[in-house]
Specification:
Elements: H1 7-24, E1 31-36, E2 41-49, E3 53-59, E4 91-97, E5 101-106
Antiparallel strand pairs: 1-2, 1-5, 2-3, 3-4
Length: 107
């Protein structure tokens, strides 16, 4: 065995998880600023959460979402379909691990 969690710390982590769920529920779809224990900050809207993750919808100005693989052949060789673009361009869902969150504040 490489690692086994200490039973007291495991109990503490479960209590923190339960309190996070209760604290996050009223702020669904609201704009927040999240700071992780590593000092990284993100701003966005809470789009959801589950037992271990917080899902934050973040607006981006990058065009990386437009990258895709195009067919090398154009008509008349094969039917050409336009590339798929997201329904809400510029929005990305960022999953964050609940245990890495240091602070969460409304904007």
């Amino acid at each position: 065995m490489i690692y086994q969690a200490d039973p007291t710390s495991l109990h503490h982590v479960k209590k923190v998880r339960e309190s996070m769920h209760g604290a996050l529920k009223p702020y669904m779809n609201q704009k927040v600023k999240v700071t992780t224990i590593d000092g990284v900050s993100h701003e966005g809207c809470i789009s959801g959460f589950d037992e271990g993750h917080l899902y934050l919808t973040v607006t981006t100005t990058s065009t990386d979402y437009m990258r895709s693989y195009y067919q090398p052949y154009y008509p008349p060789y094969q039917p050409y379909y336009p590339p798929y673009y997201p329904v809400y361009p510029g929005n990305v869902i960022l999953p964050l691990v609940l245990y890495n969150l240091l602070a969460l504040s409304l904007i």
